[in-house]
């Protein structure tokens, strides 16, 4: 005879056992710091593929190909917050990829 708690827990979650505990991958969109003509490029954020945030920034450098050479900092679009870990990135979020330089505020177009 099966335990009622066991049935209740497994009936609520339709995720197969082999997929439980696997981090979900999602897209985030990145602008290049200081480039007023850049359009956001989508990047796949998958913390299981990149073991730490520095490896993710190396991958972002290869895909985004910023003029500064390598992505070393990631900021929120208004430059108020520096992103330092995967948990700070949100699915379908927009961010600014920068080199070693600080966030560059773009001039408003007239």
TrEMBL record:
Any single GO BP term: intracellular signal transduction
Annotated ranges, domain Doublecortin: 26-109
Matching Gene3D superfamilies: Doublecortin domain (3.10.20.230)
InterPro entries, sorted: Doublecortin_dom, Doublecortin_dom_sf
Cellular component GO terms held in the UniProt record: microtubule; microtubule organizing center
Signal peptide positions on this chain: none
Pfam families, A to Z: DCX (PF03607)
Domain of life: Eukaryota
PROSITE patterns cross-referenced by the UniProt entry: DC (PS50309)
Transmembrane region(s): none
Name of the protein: Doublecortin domain-containing protein
Species this chain originates from: Pinctada imbricata
Lineage, opening ranks: Eukaryota, Metazoa, Spiralia, Lophotrochozoa, Mollusca
């Amino acid at each position: 005879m099966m335990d009622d708690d066991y049935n209740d827990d497994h009936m609520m979650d339709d995720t197969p056992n082999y997929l439980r505990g696997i981090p979900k991958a999602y897209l985030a969109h990145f602008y290049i710091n200081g480039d007023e003509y850049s359009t956001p490029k989508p990047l796949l954020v998958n913390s299981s593929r990149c073991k730490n945030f520095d490896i993710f920034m190396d991958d972002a450098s290869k895909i985004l190909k910023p003029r500064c050479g390598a992505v070393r900092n990631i900021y929120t679009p208004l430059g108020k917050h520096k992103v330092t870990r995967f948990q700070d990135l949100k699915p379908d979020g927009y961010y600014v990829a920068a080199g070693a330089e600080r966030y560059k505020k773009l001039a408003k177009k007239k």
